[in-house]
Amino acid sequence: MRPTPPSWLKLLVPVKRTVDYAVKIRVGPKGVETKGVKHSMNPFDEIAIEEAVRLREKDKKAIEKITVVSIGPAKASEVLRTALAMGADEAIHIETAEDDVVEPLAVARTLKEIVGREQPDIVIMGKQAIDDDSSQVGGMLAGMLSWPQANFASKVDLDVAAKTVTVSREIDGGLETLKMSLPAVITTDLRLNQPRYASLPNIMKAKKKPLQKLKPSDLGADFAPRLESVNVEAPPARQGGAKVESVDEVVSKMKEAGVL
Asked: CB within 8 A of 68, min separation 6: which ones?
């Protein structure tokens, strides 16, 4: 067996199982209803998986391994299998109880432990999860690791020989380009790419790829909640509009509504 070339890189891609983006959210007495609701991979994490696979396709000698990791209940293994079918090589599942809510700080601390085990050169992840919209894990993880970070990436260029990565990100009024030495943390935005559909042959191959199961205790993880939700309620129902015959009537209606 040939020794692994020193220029090869390892990528780690965290993914999350969330309520499917097409589902109409229902709010119950304890928050958003998740039981009996379709779940799928967080869309921003799909983009991260796609980008990791594309980086390897650009230079097959550049990427040694793509590892995906998820923290969640037993069914989170489904999104890991999807990631494997898209092109990842192996998966790690930190299994939690069905009703556990893992807060961003706990996620970042757990991923730090995984980074210590896997020793990746790049952690590439979605900029946020569509269920909590916290957009905190990437920044927290980079801070804990003391790694450079580039958030909301819209373009990623990897220089394997120099061990650097150049990231373009959209900001108000234009684009910002960052060049970082590896290892680094990158979070992905919508414009980065269009994720592929997993083909049937790749779905079948994914069933044979390694998926490691871990318990939170294996990593010394503490998922005890630090935040308390005081109240969760649905927004008031929209009221129907009304037709008016003139501008004067529009002004009159606005005055009656107290908005003018």
From this structure: 12, 13, 14, 15, 49, 80, 83, 84, 88, 90, 91, 92
